[in-house]
Amino acid sequence: MKRLFIKTVLATVALAACGLAAAQERTFKFALQNPKGHPLEIGAQKFAELVAAKSGGKMKVNVFPGGTLGGDAANVSALQGGTIEFVQLNSGILASQVKAFEVFDFPFMFANAKEADAVVDGPFGQKLHALLADKGIIGLAYVELGFRNITNSKRAIKTVEDLAGLKLRVIPNAINVDWVKALGANPTPMAFPEVYAGLEQKAIDGQENPLSVILANKFYEVQKHITVTNHQYNPQSIIFSKKIWDGLSEADRKVLKDAAVEASAYQRKVNRDKSADDLQELQKAGMQVSEFSAAEQAKLRDKLKPVVEKHGAAIAATVTELQAELAKLRK
Hints:
Number of helices: 12
Keywords: Signal, Transport
Distance between the termini: 78 Å
CATH architecture: 3-Layer(aba) Sandwich
Strand content: 15-25%
Protein name: ABC transporter substrate-binding protein
Structural class: alpha/beta
Number of strands: 11
Radius of gyration: 23 Å
Strand order of the largest sheet: 2-1-3-10-4
Number of domains: 1
Organism: Sphaerotilus microaerophilus
Signal peptide: 1-23
Family: Belongs to the bacterial solute-binding protein 7 family.
């Protein structure tokens, strides 16, 4: 009887210990490039709130905005090694891991945000995220940076020819280098945390980003001109370390996935609601705004077609699949 009692006590202690272990708090790091107050940072904070709520406080996400944990390439490497759990970055940058992601950097691929949502949230976007698993990366959801526009400190850009000779910072990958070259400008690949200093020190003349990024990072302090081109749409991926993911329970994985999907919808709404005011804010800050005429916009598209064809050849099946999805949406 005494032995039975001891066994029961030991079993109870063991079960309690297991329960404590299961309830142990996990703390994750979430790295992104844009600063506090940007819609991407607001979305990341919303994600952190949702993870805490859905896990009953068991999981905590600490958000590190503004490139404080390094540039995108360094963040992805750290994520693969398991020292950073979450990273949020332009989906096109993941082309260095899976080449098919390069399709997200093709100029004028999406006509509007509704098209982009349908593609990234549907089978096409999910398939691309699934391809990252072999690279030590789990794709959870897509948020957005939005449509990109060109700024510079030299002159107003009202025609394609006005871009000639400008030294423009680009996201460090081949297609971005090539499309800037195709417009007669000089591409300068540069990690995002270095851009403001590069503009301030005149190492580069300009850069291209969505209005929200230009405003949040105070590029208006070092740039005089902005041209609304909407030449490229950037979805961003919320990714997680597979090294850490493999050690999580199915319940914990579901918490992270559900929170990412919910935060994604929230972030896009915040970004789109805010973008209507961003251009006015940039003008108030002293930037001079110009837009291409319909004829110049058509010329811009024509100049960039050979770049899309060149890079599309290497991922032909992916391009065909995306174009088929877009054709369905446009019917």
